[in-house]
Amino acid sequence: MADGLLAGVRIVDLTGPDAQLCGRILAELGADVILVEPPEGVASRRTGPFRDGHEGDPEASIRFAALNSGKRSVVVDRATAQRDIQRLARESDALVISHESLWRDVVDAADLRALGTPVVDMTPFGSGGPYAGFKAPDIVTTALGGLLYFSGDVDKPPCAPPESLGQYFAGAWAALAVVSAVWAKRSSGIAARYEISTQEALATQEHLIRAAAMDGVPIKRNGSQHKTVAPARVFRSLDGYVYVYVSQNHWKVFLEAWQPHPAEFDDAAWVPNAVRRKRSEQLNRAVEAWTMERSTADLVDRLQTAGVPCLPVNRPSDFLDDVQVRARGLTGTVPHSRLGSFAQMRSPALVDGTRAEPSAPPMLGEHTADVLPDARDAVPW
Questions:
Q1: DSSP 3-state assignment of 7?
Q2: Of the candidates 100, 177, 239, 302, which lies 20 to 30 Å from 32 by C-alpha distance?
Q3: Do residues 124 and 199 make contact, with C-beta atoms less than 8 angstroms apart?
């Protein structure tokens, strides 16, 4: 069911590596997503990491597989690209393009809209304003958008989040825009142009940015320490790290689980959040002295049983092996004609209790003969 919601919808994907997640989301929901590539393939095919033993193989890029699974690949020659893309657009429900697309100079959004094809355009800053033409890899957009500033400890430079954070988040918004575009076209004949700005998609969803706009108070970096609650940060355990969050509602049950604990914390003066946050250094030292003597599993079991939020700080490999992730079936096995079988993330969206099954990424030009028969000479294999 999950992979049939957009059955009968065809999308032309002209995006670069900055927005290819958009098409993957649509493909997981059943859309026929046509990834248009030059004879050498899109840039993400040449981007690592690669599967072990296949370094540099354009069919073995883990990043490409993650962003393009379930799509179909059509290769077009640059000399005929404008004609071929227009033909694909006429036969499709919407077209999506991005800042890093190598087809930007080929596509004219106004012409495509005149053909009746909606266009979704994802860029770092949008098409207007003084930054419209700026070069902006994801880390730059994150920095300018305000997210980078308040990450990390107050006495250190800002801490870089994962570089794909902004592009992936904006890619999800672009997928929503594509679905909206298809609905508008089919229900009322409107072929609109949708514009998604990565900077704006990030900033409008971050509560600290909204808070600064509302109250004008400068944001202070707190590292992993919560702004108003303590103890609420990352603590070292015997074998790793845990995040413990103890609000005023949790304080009493936390004390019961925190055994043994210094008697001074039994004083009623420690109950209010404001008091504990002001004296967080003293409190956190005492809590960490306790957590460091216990395993991560013991801490999680002890505190969760007591009703206190506490979970491991997982490494990526820990996450994939997490019992919750396994129980929910987030990963699936994908067969690949060249690489054999490998694990792939399945869709995070469940529909009537089921997930769309993961699909293999397309081989370069694999579907050209089916989709554009007269462009078969462009296929490199």
A1: coil
A2: 100
A3: yes
